[in-house]
Write a structure and sequence with these properties.
mainly beta, Thrombin, subunit H, Methylamine Dehydrogenase, Chain H, 5 domains, 42% strand, disordered N terminus
Length: 788
């Protein structure tokens, strides 16, 4: 038993020893350990997948070609200070611009690859749905006024809801809701539109500057340019007379009468082809009959002006002359001719006055002579206004008001004064056709629908003085609807015969020099004062504006130095500061009697102000406006900018001054020009630019010490402002709607379409894609893609 126990113990020890040897790699087996797992291979063609362009404040999704592999680490740098370690992150960019997105991928062994991708962030939301120079909300877009600020020259209402308007820069817009909204129709031209007329809902014509002529057969969805037979014809055309969808006449017009003068063109195929007419008609009836006054003869044409027949000789008696001649036609058959003149009797040394009055009821075949009675030569007929269907009742302007005849012009009686106005002799009268006559004066507008026998007062649109509204511009659209245009181009529509009016087109004064002021603290928050002195703020990049109360009137200058802090000089000559992105403005402490005209800050602390009186004409601050130090600058300085190396100032006659000791001393610098310099801008620490009159653009690459002139497009127009969004991207704006842009640091400048010929006075940019332009009458243009 003891031996068995010893054998079992020995056998167990043997097994244990074998196990130990096996665990230690002994026993004659393979002693190599298994290899560690291989590190993940990063693809050689590592690439980022993301859109090339996206909108600010919109999530952009990023992926990469290694995103599905395990064991990798990802490090994203979005170029705006934000990062991510996700394989497929989503990131929103707060502002526009071009960003370098960098991805670094690292594996388990510490090896890494890096890839870059450029991303363009736009601010199209700022201008979405506005009228823009490019398609799909690209280019420069009208933020104020809307749809555009170009002057409207002509409006044609087909009915109370459908109308077309033509204006500057080749603009045509259509409304189908009575003027609430207007939709641009592409004309393909930039010449001003002076006349627009539709025969029906489809067939229409537009005429304008330099012989511009357009036609449409689909309500303006498409417009085709018509070619006149005389290619050298360059006169402005405004009058359009359609007889039917195929027969139409266009030409120059003579004042309020609407009568043709100069060359006239005729088309029998809807405007596809045209021929010139040698004889200009005095008027054209609705059926296309021509009545003409030429060579002391009343002539008629029934073939569209090709051939004329003389129907009445109106040669004045020997020794006499007519100083007034007038022809009115009710239709093809009924017409009246009136002439008034005088002769001088040398024997009695007195003037003898003569009057001739003729009426036809058979299209000019015969004319009945009418002996005018009942009015004197000084108060008698001056101009015929209307004729009844039976040619018996006529209404005319007299020397002291309206006259009426019920016997074909033989006897005349004075009509009552419109609205019993004691100043009746100030009224002017215009026929609206048929028995409708409108009377206008400084004291009111009135409408008669019975040939001047009774009158209804018309309320003045927009509660303005009636001197702004001429009877020449009043039109009857239908039985109850009237339209009118004021002296500034604003158009109003009334659907109750002039008792209430709705403004359907805003006014803009093409000759106003008041630009208002505009400033943005970032791509969304901005402040504006318009030409009327009203203040507005926006939180969506100018897509919408909210009226704010303010006491400073029109802002002479306004600027934001960061997202919250802004400075403003009001028309009251006071300096204001905002710390809430322009929502509120408080006066900044200044010395008594100081009257400010301008202010500019290069950063939150360093600023410069202009004054017209109350101490030195300039002052600077280095503590954000807490204290101001008077600054002695040369006379006539209009703009000043700062860099770390120098302060640069410009003025009239090509003057440039440079200071390298913070404005203590100034040195005049030769520029080689006598142009009046308007504005300055630094594109980097040493490169400074100046713009001015006569298309002047100057550049200095040494902080203003030496200057060189550059040639740019502009035809010697005044360049008003220059701004750079980066060292490479900048803009120049000027008169005549000029916009110049550079993307290579000013080596080349190319013209961008502005959509207007109005003067542009200022520009500011918050990034290379987001900028705004201000101009005359408070106009605002904006871009979300760099104006491209």
């Amino acid at each position: 038993m003891q031996k068995l126990t010893l054998r079992m113990r020995a056998w167990g020890m043997s097994i244990l020893a074998t196990a130990v040897l096996t665990a230690c790699g002994g026993g004659g087996g393979d002693s190599t350990p298994p290899p560690p797992p291989a590190p993940t291979i990063i693809p050689e063609n590592l690439a980022i997948t993301a859109p090339a362009t996206s909108e600010s404040a919109t999530a952009v999704n990023f992926t990469n070609s290694a995103g599905a592999l395990s064991g990798l680490k990802f490090q994203w740098d979005f170029g705006d200070g934000s990062t991510s370690t996700d394989a497929a992150p989503s990131h929103s960019f707060a502002s526009g611009g071009e960003f370098d997105v960098v991805l670094k991928v690292t594996n388990e062994a510490g090896s890494s690859r890096e890839v870059r991708s450029k991303l363009n962030i736009t601010n199209i939301a700022n201008v979405k749905g506005l009228d823009c120079t490019g398609a799909s909300n690209n280019g420069w877009c009208w933020q104020n006024p809307r749809p555009t600020g170009n002057r409207v020259n002509s409006v044609h209402f087909l009915n109370a809801t459908t109308a077309w308007r033509g204006g500057e820069n080749g603009e045509i817009f259509k409304t189908t809701d009575g003027g609430t909204t207007w939709v641009r129709q592409n004309t393909g031209i930039t010449a001003s539109i002076y006349g627009i007329k539709f025969f029906d809902a489809n067939n229409g014509w537009a005429s304008g500057a330099f012989g511009a002529l357009l036609r449409t057969t689909d309500g303006g969805t498409t417009w085709a340019v018509s070619k006149l037979p005389d290619s050298s014809y360059s006169y402005d055309m405004a009058t359009i007379t359609p007889v039917d969808a195929q027969t139409v006449y266009v030409g120059r017009t003579s004042g309020a009468s609407g009568n043709y003068y100069g060359l006239i063109f005729a088309s029998k195929d809807g405007g596809v082809t045209w021929k010139s007419l040698t004889t200009v008609p005095y008027l054209i009836t609705s059926t296309g009959k021509f009545w003409s006054l030429q060579n002391n003869s009343v002539r008629v044409s029934t073939d569209g002006g090709t051939n004329y027949t003389s129907t009445l000789d109106v040669t004045p008696p020997a020794g006499s002359y007519f100083d007034t001649t007038h022809l009115i036609a009710r239709d093809d058959l009924r017409a009246a001719f009136f002439a008034k003149g005088s002769s001088y009797d040398w024997t009695t040394q007195k003037y003898n006055y003569i009057e001739t009055f003729r009426v036809t009821q058979d299209g000019g075949t015969t004319w009945a002579k009418v002996d005018v009675q009942g009015v004197g030569t000084s108060t008698g007929v001056q101009r015929l206004l209307s004729m009844s269907a039976d040619a018996k009742t006529l209404v005319a302007m007299g020397g002291n008001g309206l006259l009426r005849s019920t016997d074909g012009g033989a006897t005349w009686t004075a009509l009552g004064v419109p609205l019993n106005d004691p100043y009746y002799y100030y009224y002017s009268y215009v026929s609206l056709g048929g028995n409708d006559i409108v009377a206008s004066s400084y004291y009111g507008l009135a409408l008669s629908e019975d040939g001047g026998q009774t009158w209804t007062r018309l309320n003045n649109p927009n509660s303005q003085s009636s001197s702004s509204y001429s009877g020449d511009n009043l039109r009857r659209v239908d039985a109850n609807t009237l339209s009118t245009m004021d002296s500034q181009g604003a158009t109003y529509l009334s659907k109750d015969k002039g008792q209430t009016w709705t403004k359907v087109i805003a006014s803009i004064d093409s000759y106003s020099s008041n630009p208002g002021s505009l400033a943005f603290s970032d791509s969304k928050n901005g402040f504006m004062t318009d030409a009327a002195g009203r203040s507005f703020t926006t939180k969506d990049g100018g897509a919408s504006w909210q009226l704010k109360s303010a006491d400073f009137g029109v802002a002479r200058t306004v600027q934001f130095v960061n997202k919250t802090t802004g400075w403003l000089v009001g028309s009251d000559g006071r300096l204001y500061k905002s710390t809430d992105s322009g929502q509120t403005w408080l006066t900044s402490p200044v010395s008594p009697g100081v009257y400010y005209t301008g202010v500019y800050f290069s950063n939150e602390n360093l600023g410069w102000s202009q004054r017209s009186y109350g101490g030195a004409l300039s002052a600077y601050t280095k503590d954000g406006g807490k204290t101001w130090t008077e600054l002695s600058v040369p006379y006539g300085v209009t703009s000043m900018r700062f860099s770390d190396q120098s302060w640069v100032a410009v003025g009239g006659s090509g003057t440039v001054y440079v200071s390298t000791d913070s404005g203590i001393t100034w040195n005049a610098v030769y520029t080689g020009t006598t142009a009046s310099l308007q504005a300055l801008a630094f594109s980097d620490a040493k490169t400074v630019w100046a713009v001015g009159s006569e298309g002047t653009l100057l550049k200095s690459e040494d902080s203003g010490a030496k200057w060189a002139a550059l040639k740019v497009a502009g035809n010697n127009l005044t360049l008003r402002d220059i701004k750079f969004a980066s060292a490479k991207v900048g803009w120049i704006v000027g008169d005549g709607g000029l916009i110049l842009a550079t993307q290579d640091g000013g080596k080349t400048w190319r013209q961008q379409a502005s959509g207007t010929l109005l003067n542009l006075t200022s520009i500011q940019a918050v990034d290379i894609n987001t900028a705004w332009i201000g101009g005359v009458n408070g106009l605002v243009l904006a871009t979300g893609n760099g104006g491209n």
